Amino acid sequence: MKKNINFFEKKIKRIQKQYFEYLKQKEQLKPKIETLKIIIVYIVFGFSWIILSDGILSLFVKDIDIYNKIQIYKGWFYIVITSILFYLIIYNKIDLFKKSLDTIHKGYEDLSATYEELTTMDEELNSRYEELQLVLEKLRQEKELSDSIIKNTYAVVVVLNKDGTIKRFNPFAERLTGYLENEVIGKKWLDIFIPEDKKDYTRELLKRIVNGEVVQNQENKILTKDGRIIDILWNNSVLKDSMGNIIGLVAIGIDITQMKLLVKKLKHLAYYDTLTGLPNANMFEKMVNEAINQNTDKNSKMALIYFDIDNFKYVNDILGHKAGDILLKKLAYIIKTNVHFPDFYGRMSGDGFAILLKDVSDENNIIKKVNELSEKLGISWNYNEHEYFITVSKGIALYPYDGKDYETLLKNAETAMYKAKESGKNSYKFYSKDMYDKTLKYIEMSDDLRKAIENKEFVLYYQPLIDLKTDKIVGVEALIRWYHPQKGFIPPLDFIPLAEELGYIDEIEEWIIETVCRQKREWEVKGFEQIKVSINISSTTLTKEGFISKFEKILNKCSIESCKLEIEITETALISDLQQAIEAINRLKKLGFSIALDDFGTGYSSLTYLNRLSIDSLKIDREFIRYIEDENRNERYIVQSIIKLAHDLKLRVIAEGIETYRQLELLKQKSCDIGQGYYFSKPVPSEEIEKMFTSN
C-alpha cells in the first residue's frame, strides 16, 4: 500500500494532539491530592452538617421526640447528601480517568494502525530496496561490461561533447592513433584527427549529427600521431540529458584500412594475372566489350589476336613449372613493352595471351604489327645454361567481320591459332569460315579421346620382332589401337599427337605399361618366357617425375623382371632436354631395362645421341628401308653405314618397315640383327600372336 508523506504527518499530529490531551488529563489526575480533597470535603461537609444541622434543629425544634425523629431523618438525609456529593466527586474523577483511558486507547489504535501501515510500508520499502539493489547491481555489471567492452574492443570509441571536444577516448583508439587519452581529452576532434582537406566536410557532418540526423556506416579518414592516414568506418549515436536535449555523441569506428587494401588487392586479383601482372581474361573481356561499345564508327576495324607458346607443355613437363613460369614472365614483359595504347593485351590462361589492336586500317596494317610482334616474341631463351628457341602461333579475328561480340571474336581467334599450329607452328592465320569445321572436329576428337580413356576403349596389338639369322620370333612390339564405338579403329597417328598435346599421354602410357606387364606375365605362365616385349615411351612420360617409381611398382605387382622389357624412345623425345632424358635412361638401365633408340636417322643429332646415351638397340627408321632396293638412291648405303656404326658400338640393329623379300635379303646381307614389318606380320591381337609363338 502506497502512502504519501502528508498522510503520515496528519496521523502523527493527531496522535500528538491526543497525547497532549492525555497529558492534560494526567495533570488533573493526582491520586493523593484528589483523595485528600475528598476527605477534606467529607470532613468539612460532615462538621458543617453536624454543627449547622444541630444548631438549626435546637433553635426550631423543642420537642425531644420530634427532635429525635428529625435526628434520624437527618442521618438518612446526611447519607443521601454525602452519597450524592461523593458520587459527583468520584464520577468527575472517574470520567476524567475514562477520558484518559479513551485517549490512550484511541492513541493506541492509531499507533497500531500506523504501525501496521509503517510495517507494510517498511516491507514495501525493503522490497523496493532489494529491487533497487538488484537494479543497481545490474547497472554496475552493465557499466563494468560496457567499460570492459570499451576498453577491450577492437574498435575506436570516442565520446564527444556537443561542441566537438573529446570527452572519452578508449585504449584501442590510443593504440591505433598513438595518442594517449590524457593528451586529447578536452581538445577538438577536428583539430587533432581530421586531415586539412577533410575538415569542412567533417565539421558539417558533426553538425548534422548533433542536430539529430542519424548517420550510419560513414567512411572517414583520420590522422595518427605519426602522420599516417587511417580509413575508419563510423557509426554514431547522440547523448541526451534528462530533458531530452542533445549534449554530445558517441562515435564507434572500425579500422578498415587493411580491409580496403585487401579489397583493392582482391580487385587486382580479379582482373590481373598474379604471375605476369598482365590483365587477366576477365579484365581483357571487359576492355574488349568497352572497345566494342565505344566503337560507333562503322568503318573502324579491330583485330583480336590470340597466341600461345608452341610446345609449352614440354617446357613444363621437362624443365618443370618453375621454368615455365619464368618463360611466361619473360613473354609478358615483351608484350608489355611492345604493345602500346590504345591497343591492349591480357593473359587468358596457361600460355595463352591475347591482344586487341584498335583502329586498324587494313589487313596489311595488321600483318605488319603481327610480324613486328612475332620478331619480339620469337626469342632465344637461356635456362640453366641451356638455350631454347621459343616460337608462338597466332590466330587473328577481325571485328566486325569475324564476330560482333567478345565471345565470338575470341573463339574464332583461337580457331585460327590452332590452324596456324597445324600448319607448322610459329606462324599466324586469319580466321576463315572453313576453319570452324576443322576446329569442331578437333574438339570432338578431344572429347572422344577423354571418353576413350574413361571407357577403356584402347586395345594392344603386337608386331613380332624376327631374328634375321634364325628367322625366329625373339620379341614383340606393343602397339596401341583405339576402337571407337561408332567410328571403329582409329590409327595411332590420328590420336597420339593429340593425346600428347592435351596431356592425356601419361594416362594412356601408364595403361599400356600395366597391360603389357600383365600380358607378359600370362605368356610366361604359358611357357613363352623368351619373348621380349618392347614398349614405346614418349618424352613427356620418360622425364616425368615419379614415372620410373610407378613403373617399378607395376613390375612388382605383375612379378615381371625388367630385363624382359625393352623401352623404345624416339629422337624427338630427346630434343626437348637431352640431359634429363640421359638421366632417366640411366636410371632405367640400372633397373635392368633394355633401351632402344627408335626412328634413328630422322632427328638432328643422331651421332650425339649414340655417343652419350646408354642404349642397347638402334631401330632404323622405315623411311630408309622403303627405298633400300633402289640402287639409284643413297638409302642402301646409309643403312649399311648405320648397321656398321651400330655394331662397332656394340649395339643391336633393328630394321622396321620390312615389306618385301628383297628388303629382307638386303638387310641380311648387311648383317642386320632384327627385322620387323608387314612382310612378317602386321600388328595382331594377343591371341593371334600367341599362335605365332606356338608355331615359331
Automatic annotation (TrEMBL):
Domain PAS: 142-213
Taxonomic classification: Bacteria, Bacillati, Bacillota, Clostridia, Peptostreptococcales
Keyword Membrane: yes
Keyword vocabulary terms for this entry: Membrane, Transmembrane, Transmembrane helix
SUPFAM superfamilies: EAL domain-like, Nucleotide cyclase, PYP-like sensor domain (PAS domain)
Regions that span the bilayer: 39-61, 73-91
Annotated ranges, domain GGDEF: 300-433
Record domain PAC: where: 216-268
Record-linked NCBIfam families: GGDEF (TIGR00254), sensory_box (TIGR00229)
Organism: Caminicella sporogenes DSM 14501
Stated name of the protein: PAS domain S-box-containing protein/diguanylate cyclase (GGDEF) domain-containing protein
